[in-house]
């Protein structure tokens, strides 16, 4: 069995850890959905730069939208890293230690 799967199974049995895992899972899902939005905006920017517009938006419109999404994504990534700092710390110890 995968060690992470085993850890999740044990955490599911603990109500406090289960709540924490649900919050992390919801946040990860939000981050993933926002990432898909960034991919769509990037593709729209490329298409609009070649054809002049895409879905009624010009390249400049897409670039403005991309800048706003970029700021939101930066904050979401910072929160994600803060929520998972203990896991990241362990991974970095494994990588460099």
Keywords:
single chain, 97 residues, mainly alpha
Care to give the gist of this entry?
The protein has 97 residues and is mainly alpha-helical. It is 88% helix and 0% strand. The protein has helices at residues 3-13, 15-51, 59-83, 85-96.
Low-confidence segments, given as residue ranges, are none
Distance separating the two termini: 25 Å
Structural class: mainly alpha
Q: Say how many strands there are.
A: 0
Number of helices in the DSSP assignment: 4
How confident is the prediction overall: mean pLDDT?
85
* Beta-strand share of residues: under 5%
Series of H and E elements: HHHH
The helix fraction, in percent, is over 70%
- Radius of gyration over C-alpha positions, nearest whole angstrom: 19 Å
Shape: elongated
Main sheet overview? none
Describe this structure in words.
- The chain has 97 residues and is an all-alpha fold.
- It has four helices and no strands.
- It starts with a helix and ends with a helix.
């Amino acid at each position: 069995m995968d060690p992470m799967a085993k850890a999740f199974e044990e955490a599911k049995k603990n109500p406090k850890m289960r709540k924490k895992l649900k919050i992390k899972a919801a946040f990860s899902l939000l981050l993933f959905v926002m990432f898909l939005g960034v991919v769509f905006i990037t593709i729209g920017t490329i298409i609009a730069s070649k054809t002049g517009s895409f879905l009624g938006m010009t390249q400049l419109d897409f670039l403005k939208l991309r800048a706003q999404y970029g700021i939101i994504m930066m904050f979401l990534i910072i929160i994600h890293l803060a929520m998972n700092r203990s896991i990241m710390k362990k991974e970095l110890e494994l990588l460099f230690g």
